[in-house]
Amino acid sequence: MTRLASPAELEQLRNYIVSQRRPDRQWVAICLGTGCRASGSEAVSAALRNALLERRLAAQIDVVEIKETGCQGFCERGPLLVIHPQNIFYQHVKPDDVEEIVEETLLGGRTISRLLYRNPESNEIVVKEHDIPFYRNQQRLLLAHSGEIDPTDIRDYIAVGGYSALPKALFTMRPDEIIDTIIQSGLRGRGGAGFPTGRKWRSCRNAPGDTKYVVCNADEGDPGAYMDRSIIESNPHSVLEGMIIGAYAIGSHQGYIYVRQEYPLAVKHFRRALEQAEEYGLLGHNILGSGFDFSVKINRGGGAFVCGESTALVASIEGKTGEPRAKHVHTVESGLWDCPTNLNNVKTWANVPHIINRGASWFASIGTENSKGTALFSLVGKVNNTGLVEVPMGITLRELIFNVGGGVSSGKAFKAVQTGGPSGGCIPRDLLDLPVDFESLTQAGSMMGSGGMIVMDQDTCMVDVARYFTAFLMDESCGKCVSCREGLVQMHRVLQGICEGKGRESDLALLQDLCDVVAGASLCALGTTAPNPVLSTLRYFGDEYRAHIHEKRCPAGVCKALITFQIITDKCTGCGACLRRCPQKAITGEKKQPHVIDQQLCIKCGVCRDVCKFDAVQVI
Amino acid sequence: MLIPVTINGRTIEVEKGTSILEAARRLNIYIPSLCYHEALAPYGACRLCQVEVESGGRKRLRTACEYPVLREGETVYTDSEPVLRMRKLVLELLLARCPDVPILRDMAAEMGLSQVRFETVGEPSQCILCGLCERVCNEVLGINAICFVGRGAKRHISTPYEANSEVCIGCGACAYVCPTGVIRIRDIDGRRHLRFWNTTVELASCRLCAEQFAPGPSLLTAQGRSSDLEDILTLCPTCRAERVRLQLAMAHKSK
Description:
The structure holds 2 protein chains of 2 kinds.
Chain A: H1 7-19, E1 27-31, H2 34-38, H3 41-57, E2 65-69, E3 81-84, E4 88-90, H4 98-107, E5 117-118, E6 125-126, H5 133-136, H6 154-159, H7 165-172, H8 175-185, H9 197-206, E7 213-218, H10 227-234, H11 236-250, E8 254-260, H12 264-279, E9 295-301, H13 310-317, E10 341-345, H14 346-358, H15 360-364, E11 374-381, E12 387-392, H16 397-404, E13 414-419, E14 425-428, H17 438-443, E15 452-457, H18 462-476, H19 482-499, H20 507-521, H21 525-529, H22 532-550, E16 565-567, H23 577-581, E17 587-588, E18 596-597, H24 607-611, E19 617-619
Parallel strand pairs in A: 1-2, 7-8, 7-10, 8-9, 11-15
Antiparallel strand pairs in A: 1-3, 3-4, 5-6, 11-12, 13-14, 13-15, 16-19, 17-18
Chain B: E1 2-7, E2 10-15, H1 20-26, E3 50-55, E4 58-63, E5 75-77, H2 81-97, H3 102-111, H4 132-140, E6 147-149, E7 156-158, H5 173-177, E8 186-188, E9 191-194, E10 199-205, E11 212-215, H6 216-225, H7 230-233, H8 237-254
Parallel strand pairs in B: 1-5
Antiparallel strand pairs in B: 1-2, 3-4, 3-5, 6-7, 8-9, 9-10, 10-11
Helix pairs in contact in B: 2-3
């Protein structure tokens, strides 16, 4: 491939690629995102390849293209497979299903109802992907093409209109115009803090210095969050295109992508994207003949959560210990090697091509007054439709969890939703009608964060949740500030004590003091937001703390020291299932007679409750 | 450029970029700190030098060692109620980690902190993780023999892989700046022992009297940086003084 030397050549190439694709021809998109890979989609893809090859050799079938895409979002139902152009959506596909899919659907044109989505409420079968409530209730902008393109093939991205914002920016807009467009669009940083992106770009452009850097922060590290990872894995060029446009607007010729080493697929896809973009003349020297040079290097992070913080990330790229520094002089003025540096999150960069293509007012029409565009969440926890979702800002938590997410799994009552990653907060049922935007979540004691969303049901102990997140932050604090390092150790110890039934009256005041010092005296956002899990659970679930401390009782039945397992005599049929499975041999009883748990021997593992078919084991 | 800053009601003009801590010292206003040293870049780890900075009608807590005076009209309070409460809490946390460190106990007495409500988690430590040793070794001497290891509660300071350092020159600057005295140096049988770093270095002998007077690698490093010093650096302080005395005497005679 010779490098494209002008926008006209790029358009010519685009037309050629599109003309080579027959719209009527069948093709199969198999999700090879990390979630579906884990549930075995690689084997499905291989089986399908084999089956098609055999038939092609026997001339039974025309060429059917298989596209291995990135995350399609509905991880709960993986491995996922969508047949185009009909848009037939198959879920939980196993290699054994492949023969039938080829015979019935690809050759016979019939659907296989067993593999189709069935609406759990109406029991109605849904054939097409876009009719499934999970997808129908989303507004997919950044994820629009995730299920359709092969992330390792730049031609796929070009075919769906990719790299059309780049020539528009380079040839028809001045850098200041681009920045104005981004400012007018209202785009705010998607890394969590929500700083206006255009203003950041302008500060960096205006900062004195000849050498400037742009950085893509792909150091996503929240437990249960995989939005950035999925975008990179499924559509890396969209991020890259945003970076190139940003670099041109800011006046930078060197970019860095800081991505976690633990995201091997994301690293691989980014690498491939860089190679291909370079090969096609979309990156590197004299991009599309515009005279603008820009190259990008990939830096792999070692897995420290704190390196997602901008100054720690900068230190890490420089080869120093990943520790934050005070931001009295901002990174846009003095960042990497003391040069002006503009750092944005993966999702922020990926929004840029859309805004350039479709204009600031189009983007500003999505979302709320102060939070524009869409928000991505990885919806996890006790929710029916676990997966990656994209919704307009301002959607209520209720719509998000119940319409898109399909409600609470296990049929139990919704208790809380944790947003904003480990240092976010837990939002209770009363606030389910809260709109999802930067300000509302912060006011409720949580935050937007990078976009993790963990749904919890009535069986979740909120003190235990606070303990869990505090433990995570305690381990991930860099340890530089006394307040964060020692404060979190102490906070964890107090919470641990409460969970173990050693809580004292004075603990609540102690926790409040600890929250104040960790938030008030620490340097970076990791420390200043670390008390959120404790503060938000104290604010909304204070009764649970008091039950643990005063009554030595865990209302949710989670904290082992505070619960006992008992067999309800009336319900027990004496089937012996629990007796056989109890690892401690703590259960005794004659056949067909009610059994009894010896509390001295019981280790409260809960196996008896899990295996009982008669709901005869209760936790008190 | 000089910029005025008001601290506790007293105004002083300082060079732009001067830290609040430096400005306060010039006014003889005491702000406690443990990780600050005038020879080193500010680090902001101990969080004890909290002050309240009022700017544009908003008051915010800031660490005085790092916060630079950049614009006019900022008012600083070093002993307001929020400042004293925050400092006390930080010190209380440090004392939970290091209950027996004298400098902390002295500070506690000064601040009226009589009781530590937090339990020591794990082993009590003598090291407060201020990082002065690491910074003097790296910033001033350029040796980089020690660094922070691990993060969060597991953070400590050590040589790479906790092994005998191959680059340590045994100069002892780390022990000199350590505010708690946990880094000790012992010269025994021709070797300098830095137990805190699991490191020993050879002592060099005076070329005249053969007394083992200084760590060999320190002398070599100094010679490497200025070759004119070789003659002086191979003599122990006594012989060096003796030689200067003789040279002076001879110079006097030849006059």
